Amino acid sequence: LQFLYFIDPAMTWVVVMCAAVLGTPAVPGVPASVYGNRQWVEANYSNGAVDPPKPVIPDELSVHVSISSYRDELCGRTLFELFNYAKNPLLITVGIVEQFLEGDMRCLEGYCKLMNESRNTCPYQDRIKIIKMTAGEAQGPMHARSFGGKLIQDENFCMQIDSHIRAIQDWDTKMISEWESAGNEYAVLSTYVQKEEDMVSRDYGSDINKWREVPMMCSTVSGMYGMVRNNQASAARALTRPLRSCFWGAGLSFSKCHMEKSVLHDPYSRGVFDGEEFTRAIRMWTHGYDMYVPSRGIIFHDYTKAQRSPKKWSSVAKHSNIERADPAIAYARLKGLLGMGGGSTDDLGEYGFGTRRTKAQYEKLCGLELSRSPRNFEEGKDRCGRLPWVPWDVPQKSTDDVHHDDSSKVQVQANVQVQVVHDVHHEDHEVQVHDGVGDHVKKPIGPPHLHMKEIAVILLVIVFVLSRMNNRGMFRRRVRND
Fold it and tell me: Is the pTM of this model over 0.85?
């Protein structure tokens, strides 16, 4: 390029723009690759013989964020991160299942404390909905998340996170762009979230080892009660877009909301920890959804203060005033679903598998045989980062007929008094109102969305025009010969 620039600067820019059109690796000289089985192997983005349904970007980029918080003093900071660093905070809603004891720092209290320190006001409270239950009524994450699903309304995108995260600037639009680049209406972005110390800057995110490494789950192990669970994350690097994966992590899940309304959280798996993520992954997959590891860090996790907190699930028995569910019963229920030894014969109904793909297809793709072992075989680990897209067993619907279930179908039976807190009080400060319409206006955000290739083509045309004008002497200073 330096030699070409010496010969013809204009042509150099043409070459650069062509490279942008054709696509370039995220890290020069480093191919997209995955450390799947004790070695780096080049990633494969190919869908195979059939492509998945193309993504549809709605006019309104609304995002619902689901959080389950168990006595977490960082919950308020998480709310501050979400609203303070969102590009479109008026299109963000947050649904929290808050499990607490009297005297704990509450989510809304912590949020307003930080907002008042930063802005001298506490905006967006009407966009936060809270289901309250005491710590003694807590019955594990799957039980709590089943309540949180009832708070989803007509938002287009849904994100599930932990209650102790940080976010980069414009995290909402960047997550949507990342989701769109997966090229699949049924994509679910998920991984084990990077620690907050990996955040290079609010604008960029992370750049581990200068190769943009991101965590990627590639294998399974045996957990509590012999239940299959995700192994610790491996890594992917230099990804140019999200990469298909077999697994799902509860700390970050981003998709269209029709996924959350189709694949319901199981309220009867009380006390279950190991196996929550794996069973949700295989259930989503059989419903036609595909998990993808994001190509960059956008959401980051606090693994230090949150893990040292004494207000952990292990303390729940001290505060319980209800009869505890036996986790062994719930684990037997999930094992029965997966066809593992020691499983029950219960019919899980709407909390079971979908009909678009089969459990056997998932096991073949990911190198598993759950009836024999919770660990995936070497061939499954070797296939990490090189998964084809598996077509559905039923005809695909058009993207204009994407499945949208009524969220009222979520039914949870529990002796818990829930209180939904919303519209606490509306702050006029920092709230933008357009054309006299309120917060829920459905209008396109900003200028029309342009893809990188379209921008590159436009720039290419501009360079050609300027180059020809320069060759014709239109930019040369006229010299007088006296």
Answer: no
